[in-house]
């Protein structure tokens, strides 16, 4: 179980590092992504971006 926690932590760190690059490429602003303000903060729920990136990662894994 500790391995999965480490993998999830590392994935979140990588995603946070690549978020500015992905925004410049248009990810995070796809039609299925939700963005709203609550409790004085901007919240972003990138559902469509997650699906697209997951499909790209699956295709990359299949090709390798």
Give a written overview of the molecule.
- With 64 residues, the chain is an alpha+beta fold.
- The protein has one domain (2-63).
- 62% of the residues lie in helices and 19% in strands.
- The protein has helices spanning 2-24, 47-63, and strands at residues 33-38, 41-46.
- It has a two-stranded antiparallel ribbon with strand order 1-2.
- Strand 1 (33-38) and strand 2 (41-46) form a beta hairpin.
- It is globular and about 40 Å long.
- The protein starts with a helix and ends with a helix.
- The model has no long low-confidence stretch (mean pLDDT 87).
Characteristic terms for this protein:
64 residues, alpha+beta, two-stranded antiparallel sheet, 2 helices, 2 strands, 19% strand, globular
Secondary structure topology:
Blueprint: H1 2-24, E1 33-38, E2 41-46, H2 47-63
Antiparallel strand pairs: 1-2
Quick description:
The protein is of the alpha+beta class and 64 residues long.
Oligomeric composition of the shown chains = single chain
Number of helices: 2
Radius of gyration: 14 Å
Percentage of residues in strands: 15-25%
How is the main sheet built?
A: 2 strands, antiparallel
Number of strands: 2
Shape: globular
List the helices and strands in order. HEEH
How many individual domains? 1
Class by SSE composition: alpha+beta
Strand order of the largest sheet: 1-2
Distance between the termini: 27 Å
Spans with pLDDT under 50 lasting ≥5 residues?
Answer: none
Q: Mean pLDDT across all residues, rounded?
A: 87
Q: Which bin fits the share of residues in helices?
A: 55-70%
């Amino acid at each position: 179980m500790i391995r999965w926690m480490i993998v999830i932590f590392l994935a979140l760190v990588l995603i946070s590092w690549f978020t500015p690059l992905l925004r410049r490429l248009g990810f995070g602003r796809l039609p299925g992504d939700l963005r709203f303000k609550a409790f004085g903060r901007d919240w972003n729920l990138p559902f469509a971006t997650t699906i697209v990136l997951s499909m790209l990662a699956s295709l990359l894994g299949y090709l390798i």
